[in-house]
Amino acid sequence: xxxxxxxxxxxxxxxxxxxxxxxxxxxxxxxxxxxxxxxxxxxxxxxxxxxxxxxxxxxxxxxxxxxxxxxxxxxxxxxxxxxxxxxxxxxxxxxxxxxxxxxxxxxxxxxxxxxxxxxxxxxxxxxxxxxxxxxxxxxxxxxxxxxxxxxxxxxxxxxxxxxxxxxxxxxxxxxxxxxxxxxxxxxxxxxxxxxxxxxxxxxxxxxxxxxxxxxxxxxxxxxxxxxxxxxxxxxxxxxxxxxxxxxxxxxxxxxxxxxxxxxxxxxxxxxxxxxxxxxxxxxxxxxxxxxxxxxxxxxxxxxxxxxxxxxxxxxxxxxxxx
Length: 322
Ligand code: FO1
What we know:
The chain has helices spanning 12-24, 49-59, 76-83, 95-109, 114-125, 158-164, 188-194, 209-213, 218-223, 245-251, 258-265, 282-288, 303-321; strands at 4-9, 29-34, 40-42, 45-47, 130-133, 140-147, 152-157, 173-177, 197-200, 229-232, 235-236, 239-240, 272-275, 292-295. The protein has a seven-stranded parallel β-sheet, sandwiched between helices. It starts with a strand and ends with a helix. It has two domains: 4-136 and 180-321, CofD-like domains (Rossmann fold), CATH 3.40.50.10680; 140-179, no CATH class. Helix 1 packs across helix 13 (303-321) and helix 4 (95-109) packs across helix 5 (114-125). Strand 11 (235-236) and strand 12 (239-240) form a beta hairpin. The chain is globular. It is an alpha/beta fold. Residues 10-11, 38, 47, 49-50, 52-53, 68-69, 91-93, 97, 159, 162-163 line the site of ligand FO1.
């Protein structure tokens, strides 16, 4: 029987991992539960960066070097908006990408839920996985930062913190606004319950995987699933492999080490954890927290290296199942 794999994914790291996973197990039935806390409404359009990054990466449309947005992109619409004084200028929406957001917003306006819209968009891109948003309800991650104008604090949208401010100012709290009232999208809990293996890719543990787990019912479903749950550390040598995960880990009081992230998820949630070979010293610490741990190369330098990581994650899942 086809192996059923469920992956809780953020943007670039999750998408690249999925490409390796598909290459490692081309016949597997893969369901991706995508983070929608990074979603943002701009120019009247709904933009879903993480869903699109997964869809474009697996569908062959991604800007490879950048990791987000479309290959062969142009920015005429953005330039025209700027000529009218309409921003924000700090968020790079390209012309090709705009079309996706127009279709999505039009369908949502016509009454389709985000899960149905995502399915429709994937009909074009054929990502080779079933891509589900974590929820059809609006969830928006906000970051609490110092406000230099009032000498107090203010909340900004995650994209403003990440893209405009480059996560350069300390984050005091990360709040997935709307998560408490959100329901898992159709198929999410069913996929988790039916999974043979559940994987946490090297995505951001706070604003990507953490936000998916914040949707009521998802954490409980993962924790009580019959399937082994295995994660791959996004932290290598005490620093994020890419992105600025250390900034948001600090906000939730978690050190930027492979072992600390494993303990943050905890033995109640994950059964296995892969750390990079440079973090081999962390294996004993993770195992003492009740989580089976192995050190293997975790740099996603190309699809082959990523496929080997995915195969190691599946092997660890088999080991904990036994
Ligand atoms: N990341 C940037 O660093 N700068 C951008 O201007 C930017 C625009 C953008 C537009 C569409 C999209 O799907 C993603 C985009 N990203 C951009 C990536 C995104 O901000 C984050 O990397 C993810 O939300 C984190 O997973």
